[in-house]
Amino acid sequence: MPGFADRMSKLGVEGAFIVLARAKELERQGKKIIHCEIGQPDFDTPAHIKEAAKKALDEGFTGYTPSAGIMELREAIAEYVSKTRGIDVTPDQVVVTVGAKIGIFSALMAFVNPGEEVIIPMPAYPSYESVTEFVGGVVKPVVLKEEREFSPSGEEIAKAVTDRTKVIVINTPSNPTGGVYKRKDLEAIVEVAKEHDLWIISDEIYEDIIFDGKKHESILSIPGAEERAVMLSGFSKTYAMTGWRLGYVVAPKEVADKITKIQLNTVSCPVSFVQKAGIAALKGPRDEIEAMVREYEERRDLLYREINRIPGFSMIKPAATFYAFPNVKELGVKSKELANMLLEEAGVALLPGTDFGAPGEGYLRLSFATSKENLMEAMERIRAFVEEKFPNVS
Ligand SMILES: Cc1ncc(COP(=O)(O)O)c(C=O)c1O
Q: Is the domain defined by 47-283 classed in CATH 3.40.640.10?
């Protein structure tokens, strides 16, 4: 067989999909597995959003659209982002994408030359590291610390800058930590980026899943960020639309044009009728969305209480997202080994923190996008397992 391009060895895989495959295999063998590995809402897409897609199909809206998306949706996104960030975004700054993930890929493709460095606060969503390396860039991790509630330190980001640094990638609210970046830390990041003339890629896909009555802080609302930040978000998490593959990028117009060019050369355009569903999502009622967030918050409270009762486990309260990120260092085993044992022996599928980079050692990630009953059962199984295997840990 002829060889592959060298860059293929740089592309990683997502741990969640590997654990899911193993969990399914165990289920085929007759074992009952509790799924806490996948970051996918366990709710259905609200009916009015589905109706908009059905109507578009019935009306024959099935052809290609402009590469950057239909103007009506770009306008709706510009309006939404302007309102939620307190800034003035125009539709020509918006590119509709096929899921948010491709926005990360396109932005890194557009910015990073081989050998240039990308600063990533970690543990982080695996695609930032994987794609940076794929395009020939070099990852410079900055460790997110539990004692800072997983908000990055501006000082440490400044220290990571060299004359090869090109981009800082941030993610708030954050997968896997469930933390949100503090405003003063976002301000420090903008200062560093301005001083060293860097791009910022800001992944804000969890912007609506925030608890305790708090509001999302976006880097776009910090003066000076707008001219160097690419913000990406989407519909997968907020509107329970993972399978629809709809996201967007908001960037300075010159950057939006480059990302559109990548899109033109890859997917041509986002899916036509799905874009109509996006308009319905942004403009429609929000009561179902709010109910989902309330449910996630109740599950967060349940997990916070129960996890802290398990010997050797401790956790600060996740401020957002649907991820719990308990510290398991007291147990004295590697996260990966512990996650494997919990799957094979206790029937709970979850992820080691190291699936999100080396700084995730000593942590596990549990998704609470599953029912309270399942979560309670997962907690009971984990507790029984730990009490048996680690009798000396209190
Ligand atoms: C931080 C983060 N960014 C992006 C994505 C991808 O979102 P999408 O389904 O819209 O591609 C995910 C999905 O898990 C995520 O956790």
A: yes
